[in-house]
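Hi there,

I know you've been waiting on this one. I reran it after we fixed the sequence typo, so this is the corrected version. Both the input and the resulting structure follow.
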Amino acid sequence: MALRYRHQGKGQMISLGKYPAVSLAEARKKRDELKARASEGKHLTREKKAQKLRQAYEDSNTFERIARDCLAHRQVKMNEKYRIQCLARMEQHVFPMIGALPITEITIPDIVRVVEKIGKGGTVETAKRMKQIISQTFRYAAQRGLCQHNPAADLRDILPSKQAKHHACIHPSELPDLFHAMNSRAADLGKYAMQLLALTFVRTGELISARWAEIEWAKEEWHIPAERMKMKRPHVVPLSRQALAILRTIQERTGGKEFIFFSAASKSKHISNGTVLMALRRMGYQNRMTGHGFRTLASTILNEKGYPPDVIERQLAHEDKDRVRAAYNRAEYMLERKKMMQDYADWLDQRSKSANVMRLNVSKS
């Protein structure tokens, strides 16, 4: 069944569908609608072809395909391990729900259902991360003309606020006992990791993946590249005499390897976070002290000693809310930080020695 019509004086024909797939009643209704459009000067055949092309285009531009393209595009700026983790979570949580939909057909309620389902499963942080990646995907698509707007742009209130994470940490008065326990351990990488965490107060992940190439012996500094820092900005750690001595001791074991804390048993080729936690657990500090606790101790003690908060915060590599200033502050307060780090190392040395003296006196009595 077909309709004959004229467009700009030329005869045209458009199909109404095949009988019996299209009934006579449906064909008549469709004919009347098309005649009305033809009377308005529309080129019905050309419109039909354009609609078919649009449909084919939309069917090929599903959310999943565009999300994969977006992650691939961003991989130059992302840590590869993190990119793979994000994709795996999208495959688990997001693609089964909206992955097959054309990106132009996804609505705000569709995204809310996805994010709330993840959040109700008890993984609020994963839900927030997925919401962020969904929004980035729509932004990527809009910039390339694949959709008109970003329905995930303003969904800030659909998930509960994150509660502050508590990292177990001893009171500063307990430091002598902790140092005695550390000093009593066999000389293994776990012991050296704890000692350097105390002396550098970097994050555990930043320490265990440290490379020998990052140590600048002449400057007595450790330069951590941006891709290994939580805030994705390069960071300089002044190395005290005590920290340098520990590094030289480790160098005798792993100096020929890429990683300072090289581990042949690890797929990543360096020790894991669990190495430090297990060492603390075996020393009797389970649920009392963590690797992050050394950062907490340093912040508490140095603030109590009156060091400038800006110097302490810069050494802890905390986020600077002023992004322009943050771009230039890698070496900010360097002289003050070098002095502070050496003062702190000397103070820790005194606590360590007092612990040994106290233990020696107890054993003699």
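Quick highlight: The chain has three domains: 2-58, 63-143, 172-364.

Best,
R. S.
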